[in-house]
Amino acid sequence: MKSKKMPNDIFMENMRKNIFGKKQKLKTKTILLATSGDPDALMEIVDAYKPYIEKLSMRVVIGDDGQYREAVDETVKRTLETGLIAAIMKFNPYR
To answer: Is 9 left (phi over 0), alpha (psi -120 to 50) or beta?
Structure first.
């Protein structure tokens, strides 16, 4: 019997599709290399999550003309990228 999806699950799935688009999934080899500390593999994963990180980093700011607009908060963006790299380095794929 198939489990019924909850509205929040459907919302999150649609949000992921809107942010990531139809981009291919990361290769297992890339993930394994990243967990072993390969800098190129780490950057490939960070690049894959870049749209999501930028979406989470958006803040409303007031421009010089007094108008409100959205902009990426670079501090939040770097914090999220650092957290992602730290999580990758802690990840044990063999557990």
So the answer is: alpha
How far is Cα 18 from Cα 41, in angstroms, rounded to an integer?
24
Query: What would the pLDDT profile of 50-85 be if each residue is shown by its tens digit?
Result: 999 999 999 999 988 999 999 999 999 999 999 999
What b/e readout covers 71-92, taking b as 16+ CB neighbours within 10 angstroms?
A: eebeeebeebbeebbeebeeee
> What's the rounded Cα separation, in Å, for the pair 25 and 19?
13
- Length of the chain measured in residues: 95
- Domain locations along the chain: 37-95
Its pTM stands at 0.71
Which helix H or strand E contains 87, and what residues bound it? helix 74-90
CA distance 19 to 53: 10
